[in-house]
Design a protein that fits this description.
The complex is a heterodimer of chains A (498) and B (56).
Chain A: H1 5-25, H2 33-38, H3 45-55, H4 59-72, H5 78-93, H6 97-103, H7 108-116, H8 118-136, H9 139-151, H10 157-206, H11 209-220, H12 234-251, H13 253-261, H14 265-275, H15 278-297, H16 308-316, H17 321-352, H18 354-360, H19 364-388, H20 395-419, H21 425-445, H22 449-457, H23 462-487
Chain B: H1 5-55
The chains are: A mainly alpha (498), B mainly alpha (56).
Chain lengths: 498, 56
């Protein structure tokens, strides 16, 4: 361990002090709920890029991308390429995001109300929050595990470290909302970049590209470079990742919130096209650390492979770089946690509490207060769930499946809402039910030996179920929407018109 | 190095793109923040004046 307090400690302290002060300094600009949730829609291109990139790179990202490469070689980096392609296409065409930004909504479910009615807005809000919070639930523990292994810290300090970090993030998010998140994201993006590039340069200098390639070749053969030739991956894995990548760019609320906070739809689209290649970087660079860990430690089978990369870094980095790495990872975790807390909180406030808000005519001041309480409640949930829940499989597998509960149905609803005039609430109900039932049934069936074996003998794994969920959710949307006019008059009149 | 050129090319592209965008965003992002806070401040001032006018 090369952690040297005067150097590394100073880097970390300066980073933390600077970020917290910047986050707190902008709280005076928050006057209304719109300022708190979407920064008064005043975000310009470069700040949008920094914020989106910093939000979508947390310690958990670093851990699962490294684990993917550790377990599958370069083939495990494929999701990054798929995400880059889909984000670029969505940004370039404005598919769904342009009508959404032009509608002037603050969340995706708010968009649904115009077409499908209040009940669908509320229900989709619930689906988004459940999927999002389950997804985010593992961030805290994963981040803690990284810090424990990368610094050689005693495991007893894991809970304390993560609790202090979460409280720090919650303080500036609660006070400054999206404005604080944006300003801190900007600083955090710079630290993340310095850490990612610095550590990658050390890995490439010390181990070398050729050694990394031959490590993958030795352990995984040609399948380590081509996902279609790797038995554990194959076309269902690639197809499911493509579905997740496409759906994520259209409906993942933390991404969409940047579009909705942009000063206009053109800026929103540019934020997407200009940030798209970051998704390849976020799989590629930590992925190289994962392959370096494979070279250094040898193969590890099972969930423990997630900790291989931080264990490798523990011995590989010199003083100064350790400080930079930890500051970068703290930056990554803080930017992700703050944005995610704000995002899911905004859906709870804007959509789940919408009926209550309208009935009681909440003032802006009371609305801000409620938003702040929601973020505190999410923080408490994260702490309890994060410290209690232990992952049984790969991190990326968990994240994909929990996200699918939300991504499949909300994507079907959004596309239909924006581009299909005959879409209606029957189709929306059917899509929401199908999108939730299939992944949850599969997750439950995996807990019992009989059903698990039955599924395995028929080739039904998480990837096949994931692809089937996306397809069937789309079918449910179409069939449900076409059925309604057979039973109800004026079935396809948008709710706001009726 | 020439074998698996795709992954090598992607790595180089990632390193070049990430270094460039970081420098670019670090400089221009600071101006964006200043502009955003300025516009929000103006908006709040205008709203305050409007409220005062309504009272009088």
């Amino acid at each position: 361990m090369n952690f040297y307090w005067p150097i590394d400690g100073t880097i970390i302290f300066v980073y933390l002090a600077f970020t917290m002060l910047a986050g707190l300094a902008v709280r005076k600009y928050v006057g209304k709920v719109e300022d708190f949730l979407v920064a008064g829609r005043e975000v310009n291109l470069h700040l949008g890029i920094a914020s989106l990139a910093a939000t979508e790179f947390g310690i958990v990202t670093c851990m699962y991308t490294a684990q993917n490469a550790f377990d599958h070689g370069f083939a495990g980096m494929t999701p990054g390429i798929l995400m880059t392609i889909s984000m670029f296409l969505v940004g370039a065409t404005g598919f769904c995001i342009e009508p959404m930004r032009k509608a002037g909504v603050m969340t995706i479910p708010e968009m649904f109300e115009k077409r499908f009615g209040m009940k669908i807005r509320w229900l989709s809000g619930v689906v988004i929050v459940v999927g999002g919070l389950l997804n985010m639930g593992v961030f805290l523990r994963t981040g803690g595990e990284f810090l424990v292994h990368a610094t050689g810290m005693e495991e007893n300090y894991l809970e304390l470290t993560m609790t202090v970090l979460l409280i720090g993030v919650a303080v500036y998010t609660v006070l400054g909302g999206m404005l604080s998140v944006l300003v801190t994201d900007y600083l955090q993006f710079i630290f993340i970049a310095l850490g990612l590039l610095g550590v990658t340069a050390v890995v490439l200098t010390n181990i070398g590209w050729d050694t990394l390639v031959s490590t993958v070749q030795t352990n995984y053969g040609e399948g380590g470079f081509n996902p279609f030739r790797r038995e554990k991956l194959g076309w269902p894995w690639v197809l499911f990742n493509a579905c997740v990548a496409g759906a994520m760019m259209l409906t993942w609320q933390t991404n969409i919130q940047r579009i909705l906070a942009a000063k206009d739809s053109k800026t929103g689209r540019k934020i997407y096209t200009h940030t798209s290649f970051f998704y390849a970087c976020r799989f590629m660079l930590p992925g190289l650390w994962g392959i370096a860990a494979l070279y250094s430690l040898g193969p590890i089978i099972g969930p423990e492979s997630a900790n291989a990369m931080p264990k490798f870094l523990y011995g590989a980095l010199s003083s100064g770089l350790i400080g930079l790495l930890i500051a970068a990872m703290l930056a990554a975790d803080m930017s992700t946690d703050s944005s995610y807390m704000l995002t899911w909180g905004s859906v709870i406030y804007n959509d789940i509490l919408a009926p209550l808000r309208r009935r009681q005519q909440w003032s802006q001041k009371f609305g801000l207060l409620v938003n702040r309480f929601i973020i505190i409640a999410i923080g408490i949930f994260l702490l309890v769930y994060g410290l209690w829940y232990e992952l049984k499989g790969g991190i990326w597998e968990y994240l994909r499946l929990t996200a699918t509960i939300y991504l499949s149905s909300i994507t079907a609803l959004l596309i239909a809402c924006c581009y299909w005039k005959r879409a209606n609430d029957w189709g929306a109900y059917a899509a929401l039910a199908t999108g939730a039932v299939l992944p949850l049934t599969f997750l439950t069936s995996q807990q019992f030996e009989i059903s698990s074996n039955w599924a395995e003998t028929r080739g039904l794994n998480g990837d096949v179920v994931g692809v089937a969920t996306f397809v069937l959710t789309g079918v449910a949307m179409v069939v449900g929407s076409l059925l309604k006019p057979l039973f109800v008059e004026n079935a396809n009149v948008p709710r706001e018109e009726s | 190095m020439t074998t698996h050129w795709f992954w090598f090319g992607l790595l180089i592209a990632c390193l070049v793109w990430f270094s460039t965008i970081t420098l670019y965003v670090a400089i221009r992002g600071a101006f964006d923040i200043r502009g955003m806070l300025g516009r929000l401040s103006d908006k709040h001032d205008a709203e305050m004046k409007e409220q005062e006018n309504m009272k009088t």
